[in-house]
Design goal:
This protein has helices spanning about 5-30, 35-55, 60-70, 75-80, 80-85, 95-114. With about 110 residues, the protein is an all-alpha fold.
Length: about 110
């Protein structure tokens, strides 16, 4: 019988997560395919860790954080004060922060379209 250690299980889970996030970005933003896999996975890991600082730990919440970073810049949470303030509000549940991020993207691009 094959036995997987806890460490191996964690590594498989992490690899699967990175693959799902990378695929999501590639499917959503074809230009993301120009980023080498190692660089993309490094960025996904760093953004996932940053999202956790704001209590965004569910995969769907982290996806919103990563997409916002892709569209608005890696430092979006520092560049846009209102975003940083919402994310740093620990009285807000994660789903409200996630909804805010999606709305922020929508409104920002609607404004750009004019």
């Amino acid at each position: 019988m094959l036995k997987i250690s806890e460490l191996q299980s964690k590594e498989l889970s992490e690899a699967s997560y990175l693959h799902r996030m990378r695929k999501y970005l590639y499917d959503s933003f074809p230009e993301a395919r120009d980023v080498p896999v190692d660089d993309m996975e490094t960025a996904i890991t760093a953004l996932t860790n940053r999202a956790a600082i704001y209590n965004l730990t569910q995969e769907t919440d982290v996806a919103a954080f990563i997409v916002t970073a892709w569209l608005m810049g890696l430092d979006f949470d520092q560049k846009f004060t209102v975003v940083g303030n919402v994310l740093a509000n620990f009285d807000l549940p994660s789903y409200e922060k996630t909804e805010f991020l999606w709305e922020f993207i929508e409104k920002s691009f609607a404004t750009l379209k004019g």
